[in-house]
Write a structure and sequence with these properties.
Layout lengths: L1 H25 L5 H17 L5 H4 L16 E4 L3 E4 L13 H36 L1 E4 L4 E4 L7 E3 L2 E4 L7 H16 L2 H14 L4 H22 L5 H10 L11 E2 L5 H8 L8 H33 L2 E2 L4 H13 L5 E7 L3 H8 L6 E7 L4 E7 L27 E2 L2 H12 L4 H6 L3 E9 L5 E8 L5 H14 L3 E2 L1 E3 L2 E3 L1 E10 L12 H4 L8 E7 L2 E7 L10 E4 L5 E3 L5 E5 L6 E5 L6 E4 L4
Parallel strand pairs: 1-18, 2-18, 4-6
Antiparallel strand pairs: 3-4, 5-6, 5-7, 8-9, 9-11, 10-11, 12-15, 13-14, 13-18, 16-17, 19-20, 20-23, 21-22, 21-24, 24-25
Helix pairs in contact: 1-2, 1-10, 2-7, 4-6, 5-7, 6-7, 8-9, 13-15
Length: 596
């Protein structure tokens, strides 16, 4: 999906830049042939230039020099889950965040595109159907079709529809036919179809609509320009006014009768402005800059490939293994390879010097062997590779091509959490409400780990949110994230909102049986330790395991959760660390090695 987004953004940037040039320099220009060339060229460049960069996007995910597959950690925020304080209001509220909006907007965008492409094909079918149902005559280079007043005069490719119900002289009829023949000979219909297809892809960009409309106007101006070469402007203007009628809309066709008849008459009587060469010369650096800026990544990659053609790829020497590991950690998306080339080989050295310095991670010269070893990134410049794990918390996190997904979808995960989570009594008594952001990682095996609160509200809500997520994940299998077909780690953030209404601030309205921490039930522990590693089982007073018990090292965000059989294992940082065991409906219990 990232490839599609990149293409979409780059294509629209091209359209905007070329559109800006049009509005500044060409909007009032009446050199219609050059305007047509510019409009078609702008559409073609906008669609094709971004494709040049797709080669680097398609680079196959491969193992690096040490045989370790790259692990990419991306982070995005999940839909929000809201927990209400009152038992009667225990429902889920899904608040769509940037991730959901992205997919919803993409779906809506595609729906509009489907509608536009459907209309496009419907219009084509409509014209073809009309050509079969009306009286037609085959000519040398086109088909002449009489509409008997049911349709206006227009042309589409080699089909010329003529409204024979209008009373015109033979000379006037010929002028109308000659006008449409200009459209057919100059293949104007291809231009319209081309821009209709562009419109279905980039309909959100107003430049596309402006260019398409101006192109149709330009076609009419070109046809008029051809006619008035052999006919007086006054005579032809009178003819245009005479046959201007109400007509059905056939968006793909070239109508002789257009709503801008007055503009056409005005354009015919406007002297052709002096051709200003500087306008078109200005296009050269604009197109060049667009080409270079979009394709520069591929240039770097091709330079590396060319250099490798004269070098020898080898396994990374032992003395460079640590350097390669450092580079892989610093640039997780880079595709590093190690090469050696003869320092005395002039051809090899020339190609090595042409390498982009920003793509080289490390160089070592072996004086004893007369060789030069290079660790180079085949994907291009290292400085352009963003390390997702280094993104600050307040930035928008990257999204992998296929994000991690719980079994049954997020609705199933949220349903599990809603069944487990309890609104802490302490928070309800104090009237504390707000949003807790729980961060966690789904690794390549689909296992949840590294759960921690990155922003919380306290009063037991932070620990309860972590406990509920960990407990729910024990009952759900996760499908790991995919990036370029490879299973990768993904960092996610789950916002859980604890919400109170006015009645929740009144202690008498609290369902004590539901959220009580008063201590009638106690957690029973069967604990052993091996050095700083503590392990054992968490149970209730009847000896039944308590799955999902939250276990935290006091004063830290480090912790764990008991499994389905109540077992757990956690390593302390120091012998003085204290473990806090909490489970809703049970009295919080602590444990430390010093008590043993």
């Amino acid at each position: 999906m990232n490839n599609i987004i990149n293409y979409f953004v780059e294509a629209n940037i091209c359209l905007v830049i070329l559109g800006t040039f049009y509005f500044l320099c060409l909007q009032k220009d009446n050199h219609h042939r050059f305007i047509r060339f510019f409009l078609i060229g702008s559409g073609f460049l906008s669609v094709t230039l971004p494709l040049i960069n797709l080669g680097s996007f398609m680079t196959e995910q491969s193992t690096n020099g040490s045989g370790v597959i790259k692990s990419i950690q991306s982070t995005f925020i999940l839909p929000e889950l809201t927990i209400f304080g009152s038992a009667g209001k225990r429902s889920l509220l899904y608040i769509l965040n940037s991730y959901n909006w992205l997919h919803i907007l993409a779906t809506l965008y595609l729906l509009v595109s489907v509608v536009l492409i459907t209309i496009f094909f419907f219009q084509i079918c409509q014209i073809l159907w009309l050509s079969k149902t009306k009286k037609a005559f085959k000519q040398d280079h086109f088909t002449f079709i009489l509409t008997d007043g049911q349709l206006p005069t227009f042309s589409f490719f080699k089909l010329l529809f003529y409204d024979n119900s209008i009373k015109l002289s033979d000379d006037e009829k010929q002028k109308v036919i000659d006008h449409e023949l200009v459209h057919i000979r100059q293949k104007h219909s291809w231009d319209i179809v081309f821009y209709e297809l562009i419109k279905t892809m980039f309909w959100v960009n107003p430049i596309v609509w402006v260019f398409k409309l101006r192109l149709k106007y330009t076609h009419e101006y070109l046809a008029d320009e051809h006619i008035i070469q052999k006919t007086s402007k006054e005579y032809y203007s009178h003819l245009l006014a005479k046959i201007t009628l109400n007509q059905m809309s056939l968006g793909l066709a070239h109508h002789f009768n257009k709503s801008f008849t007055l503009n056409r008459i005005k354009m015919m009587n406007t002297p052709v402005s002096k051709f200003k060469t500087w306008k078109w010369i200005t296009l050269i650096p604009i197109v060049t800059i667009l080409f270079i800026s979009i394709s520069c990544n591929d240039d770097s990659a091709s330079e590396a490939t060319e250099a490798m053609s004269t070098a020898h790829q080898r396994e990374v020497p032992k003395e460079l293994q640590s350097e390669l590991a450092r580079l892989q950690q610093e640039y997780p998306e880079a595709n590093f390879t190690y090469m050696e080339t003869d320092a005395d080989n002039e051809e090899s050295m020339i190609k090595f010097k042409n390498l982009d310095p920003e793509s080289i991670g490390y160089i070592k010269k072996y004086e004893d062997r007369g060789m030069i070893g290079v660790i180079v990134n085949q994907n291009g410049q290292l400085k352009k590779i963003a390390k997702a794990t280094n993104l600050p918390d307040d930035e928008v996190f990257s999204i992998v091509e296929e994000p991690a997904m719980p079994e049954g979808g997020y609705e199933n995960l949220y349903e599990k959490i809603s069944q487990i989570i309890k609104y802490p009594l302490q928070a309800r008594k104090k009237g504390i409400a707000g949003k807790v952001f729980v961060q966690f990682i789904i690794n390549e095996n689909g296992l949840l780990s590294d759960t921690k609160v990155v922003k919380g509200i306290g009063a037991g809500c932070d620990h309860e949110a972590m406990r509920a997520l960990n407990a729910a994940s024990l009952e759900i299998t996760w499908k790991p994230a995919l990036e370029r077909g490879v299973k990768v780690k993904q960092k996610l953030i789950l916002p859980i909102t604890f919400a109170l209404d006015d009645n929740d601030n009144n202690q008498s309205s609290i369902n004590i049986d539901e959220v009580s921490n008063s201590g009638e039930s106690q957690i029973k522990l069967d604990i052993k330790h091996d050095g700083l590693t503590v392990y054992g089982t968490v149970m209730n007073k009847e000896g039944k395991p308590l799955a999902g018990t939250n276990i935290i090292i006091e004063g830290t965000n480090q912790g764990s959760v008991s499994s389905i059989d109540g077992s757990f294992k956690i390593k302390l940082n120091t012998p003085k660390d204290k473990l806090i065991f909490s489970f809703m409906g049970f009295q919080t219990t602590s444990y430390s090695l010093e008590k043993c």
